[in-house]
Specification:
The structure holds two protein chains of two kinds. By secondary structure, chain A is mainly alpha-helical. Chain A is built from ten helices and no strands. Classes of the chains: A mainly alpha, B alpha/beta.
């Protein structure tokens, strides 16, 4: 385990990263998608006080960025804005990030908020190792997992989640909550989520409740015999 | 609180295994206290909500090594969150020999011997038989696919008041309409009417010999915070003449493991021979056009199916592969079932196991979610689950709301894998015929095998080396300490286990009352089915 979070890289890692970035630029590895340029910034986006980077394009804190990138690997979505480097943009429509994966992980009732920086650190440690063993060059201004391309994020996630892999149960939790945000809007009351057109519930076509917030299906059956019953069925419908 | 209380009978757990003895003992005149780890909720609390903090108050997802298990955590236990399919185990199950090569069930226990006890439970719940026009769309679709593939299919018997049921499909949350027949509606209120006291948020920690003359056991417990079950808010102890242990197959063996030094040892079968009931879930990604063209079904103009979230979760099932003449480990039932969205991540969209359950293709599959159909095979597994050393408290380590880490490890043997392969092949033969659907089992990469039916971790039998309980359900070497939950069931059942757990608990009651009377309590057996 690393002694420092990725927000404060060691001098050695900074050096390695900068060297890699220079090499990457020479090799044409870095694109506007990976490193937002001025051209990709919409005019309406407000600019932060330093005037160096539009506020909405600034990376979220490394923990959030990493957790979002992992969630986006589980249920991929479209980028939130031009130059969004956290969401890879691998699939059309909203993904786990838009569905609220990070809000869910921070839900007080879940009780794992304090663990999230450590979880992100673990993911990034493995991302660094993955990059080193696969010859990938990572932009040092991003958490390592964020700096990976989508195909590499996917391959690494597959490794992290493989039975028997170290710390697998922790990564399974991250995967579970990314999916739970999308499939169940687990940070919202479901009736409210439906009213708000929660992107995940809308994507899967989850049905709407009645006016009282409860579900009922008065039409629920084809209403006819569709198979013969087993000849040895006992009284009450049990197997013999 | 440090005062030690006393009662005639202490029941640990309030699900099927605890509620039934609690009723018979209380009705028979004994003083009964029930310790329940979870909260006490009732119908108005059972909301239609997938938000964390709703159903997660009453159901736990317990992650072991190679297996994940779903279990109830509330007054009423798993009966509150179960899907109400109420099946008698097929006759051949009682003759199973497993890989040990000898009969695993007590010789006195056969289907015929258990039938009178099944009758009692079916009367008390009660269990209803769905007619075909009460089988929801997914069960109808499965039945039609079975018929087209030359198979039979039956409506599943369910412990549901069908007139009251709204087919809302929220059974995991508890039934808001009190249509599902949980222990909250029959045995538990009947027990409390006879004076039994239920103490929710009380987690039993150890069982030790009592120090008060005339009392046999002393049970220590921790009171848990209602808002965060990880936090203890009090401790206490109760002495009892009889202890009925029914904390569930994930908790009962762990409590006994922790208590072993205090009790002077427990049988070596405690914490071994766990079975996940051979549960094997597959998701069918159904082609709506084929539903119309091949099966001739249409539920609304232009809509052949799109009924995945509609109905009772279990509608129909096939008994075709419950043939007693076929070899052990190849027999199973195949049941249409609906699991809430929290399990959607387990569906496999590709055939590359490492990444099949997430990513771009999986998201595409999610867009067809209303056209999914899921089926549960309940096979003959090999009782290969083993619990490691117990955690300091409780039955597992709670890491977050509803999420627990268990020391249970499960490595399926070749026998179990053979059963699952046979079940997979049958699901495909029925549902992939002529391209009706694409069927794949839940990803094992995500969670190992998944079971909603934990069994056999403290099982009964005739062989002391491989069974912790005698045929009456008493822990060997520990008079007056009975186990009546799913952990007592010797093997997987090839059907949903709740009715068998309940019937075995009913069957154990005369012996428990007799033992309690021998300990000096004026208790009689013979109460009718609760009303």
């Amino acid at each position: 385990m690393l002694s420092e979070p990725p927000a404060r890289p060691t001098r050695r890692r900074l050096l390695v990263g900068l060297t890699a970035a220079v090499a990457a630029l020479r090799a044409g590895e870095l694109t506007a998608e990976a490193a937002p340029s001025a051209r990709s910034v919409p005019e309406s986006v407000p600019v932060d006080r330093a005037g160096l980077q539009p506020a909405s394009l600034a990376l979220p804190d490394p923990t959030t960025a990493t957790l979002e990138a992992f969630a986006d690997t589980m249920v991929p979505g479209e980028k939130r804005y031009g130059g969004d480097v956290v969401i890879a943009g691998a699939a059309p429509g909203p993904g786990a990030v838009q569905a609220g994966a990070v809000e869910l992980l921070n839900l007080p009732e879940l009780g794992i908020g304090v663990l999230l920086p450590e979880l992100a650190l673990l993911v990034n440690t493995r991302a660094l190792a993955y990059a080193a063993t696969h010859g990938r060059i990572l932009l040092p201004t991003q958490p390592p997992f964020v700096a990976l391309r989508f195909t590499d994020r996917t391959a690494l996630a597959g490794e992290l989640l493989t039975p028997g892999a170290p710390d697998r149960q922790l990564y399974v939790l991250l995967a579970l909550f990314a999916a739970a945000a999308f499939d169940t809007a687990a940070h919202l009351h479901t009736a409210v989520a439906i009213r708000q057109r929660h992107p995940g519930l809308a994507w899967i076509g989850f049905p709407a409740p009645g006016a009282d917030g409860l579900w009922r299906f008065p039409d629920y059956s084809y209403g006819r015999r569709l198979a013969s019953e087993h000849p040895l069925t006992t009284r009450g419908g049990h197997p013999a | 609180m440090s005062v030690t209380e006393r009662t005639d009978v202490l029941v640990i757990g309030s699900g099927f295994g605890g509620a039934i003895p609690a009723y018979h003992l209380a009705a028979g005149g004994a003083e009964v206290v029930i310790l329940e780890r979870g909260p006490h909720l009732t119908a108005p609390d059972f909301t239609h909500d997938l938000r964390l903090g709703s159903y997660t108050r009453i159901v736990d997802l317990v992650q072991g090594d190679g297996i994940t298990v779903v279990a109830g955590n509330c007054v009423g236990g798993s009966s509150v969150v179960y899907f109400a399919a109420s099946l008698r185990a097929p006759s051949f199950v009682f003759d199973r020999r497993g890989s040990l090569g000898h009969r695993l069930w007590p010789s006195t226990l056969t289907r015929a011997a258990l039938d009178p006890w099944y009758d009692r439970v079916e009367e008390a719940l009660p269990v209803a038989q769905q007619s075909w026009d009460q089988v929801p769309y997914p069960g109808g679709l499965f039945a039609a696919a079975c018929a087209r593939a030359g198979r039979t299919c039956n409506p599943a018997p369910v412990a549901v008041d069908l007139a009251r049921c709204t087919n809302c499909n929220w059974m995991l949350n508890g039934c808001h309409f009190d249509a599902k027949r949980s222990m909250l509606l029959n045995y538990l209120p009947a027990a409390t009417a006879h004076g039994a006291e239920i103490r929710p948020l009380h987690e039993a920690q150890t069982i030790a010999p009592a120090t008060t003359p005339g009392y046999r056991y002393r049970v220590s417990y921790t009171q848990l915070d209602a808002g965060d079950y990880r936090l203890p808010v009090g401790v206490g102890a109760i002495e009892a003449k009889t202890v009925v242990l029914a904390a569930g197959a994930l908790a009962t063996p762990v409590l006994l493991q922790r208590s072993a030094p205090l009790l002077g040892g427990v049988p070596q079968a405690v914490g071994r021979y766990f079975s996940g009931n051979g549960d094997r879930v597959s998701i069918a990604d159904v082609d709506e056009g084929k539903v119309r063209d091949l099966l001739g079904l249409e539920r609304a103009p232009g809509i052949p199916y799109q009924g995945f979230p509609i109905g009772k979760p279990i509608g129909s099932m096939s008994y075709d592969r419950l043939d007693p003449a076929t070899a052990e480990f190849t027999r199973f039932s195949l049941q249409q079932i609906y699991f809430p969205g929290i399990t959607d991540l387990l569906a496999q969209a590709t055939d590359t196991p490492a990444t099949s359950w997430f990513g771009v293709r999986k998201k595409e599959m999610r867009a067809r979610w209303p056209s999914w159909l899921s089926v549960l095979a309940m096979t003959e597994d090999d009782n290969e689950g083993v619990f490691g050393p117990p955690p300091p408290t409780g039955s597992s380590t709670r890491v977050a709301t509803s999420l627990c880490l268990s020391t249970l490890s499960y490595r399926p043997t070749a026998n179990t894998l053979r059963g699952w392969a046979a079940a997979d092949a049958e699901a495909r033969a029925v549902l992939e015929r002529d391209g009706l659907a694409r069927v794949r089992p839940w990803s094992e990469n995500a969670a190992g095998s998944v079971s909603a039916h934990p069994l056999a971790s403290c099982r009964m039998g005739d062989d002391p080396a491989t069974s912790a309980l005698d045929e009456r359900g008493e822990l060997r070497g520990h008079p007056g300490l009975f186990v009546t939950d799913g952990s007592a069931v010797p093997t997987s059942l090839c059907v949903n286990p709740s009715l068998t757990i309940a019937a075995l608990a009913e069957r154990a009651c005369p012996g428990i009352v007799e033992s309690t009377a021998e300990a000096g309590v004026r208790a009689r057996y013979g109460a009718p089915a609760p009303r």
